[in-house]
């Protein structure tokens, strides 16, 4: 019961604050939001590093923090401060070179774990580092505030409604996915319905931001909502599979009622690139 109350408090208090930040703090292409994303990427990277240690894939905490920050920081410099786009490629290449070259100077005993350290390093730089960058990139679009707002509504309402539907109606239809046996069919249906509904409302209430050149706006928005919703569900399940494989329940304890930072953004990590690319293709 305590976790349920904490989760509801986070939704009704934290969610409006996040949406307000998007709407009322758009300065420098949402630099405040972008910095928050960098912070969560760092925290998520450290938590992911801690999970990987259970499988003997070990990097240091400072290295995990830097690798998690590289891509979102580079994109923030491009988006919010106007630096040229090649900064992103320099950052990624620098991270990749560090992961590979730094292992050369390991002692003989540590050299035996070179493969494990390399795998862990690239994994952390990509997840969550590279994935979070797609949210920052949304700030470059016209109607960026509305685009980011709709993305958050589609993704987070998917998660919240899936949890509520599973809690209310999922008692006898759980166990569909071994990676997360508490997830239910009712939850999946509820989450996708919420994503489609948020996208439908976007087409109705902010048509200027969602004018499709290839089909009517409503079906285009429904495709956007369902595609993003499916990606959000897969993001949540993927993190669950990783944690279950490592014997970990939560990635951390930072966020009340949610667990760790990675637990809080897992659905956004997969949803962001899908939403971004579908928006480009459809609108």
Detailed description of the structure:
The protein is mainly alpha-helical. Helices cover 76% and strands 0% of the residues. It contains ten helices and no strands. The protein starts with a helix and ends with a helix. The mean pLDDT is 91.
Question: Top keywords for this entry?
Answer:
mainly alpha, about 280 residues, single chain, 10 helices, about 0% strand
Strand content: under 5%
Rg calculated over all Cα atoms: 19 Å
Task: Specify the overall morphology.
Answer: globular
* Secondary-structure element order, N to C: HHHHHHHHHH
Structural class: mainly alpha
How many alpha or pi helices?
A: 10
Query: Spans of 5+ residues with little confidence (pLDDT < 50)?
Result: none
How much helical structure, as a percent, in the residues? over 70%
Q: How many E-type strands?
A: 0
Provide the domain count. Answer: 1
Mean pLDDT: 91
Q: Mind summarizing the main beta sheet?
A: none
Distance between the termini: 43 Å
Write the topology of this structure.
Blueprint (H helix, E strand, L loop, with lengths): L1 H23 L2 H27 L7 H21 L4 H16 L6 H4 L2 H24 L6 H26 L15 H21 L11 H30 L14 H22 L1
Helix pairs in contact: 1-7, 2-3, 2-6, 2-10, 3-4, 3-6, 4-6, 6-10, 7-8, 7-9, 7-10, 8-9, 9-10
Would you summarize the structure shown here?
The protein contains 10 helices and no strands. The chain has helices at residues 2-24, 27-53, 61-81, 86-101, 108-111, 114-137, 144-169, 185-205, 217-246, 261-282.
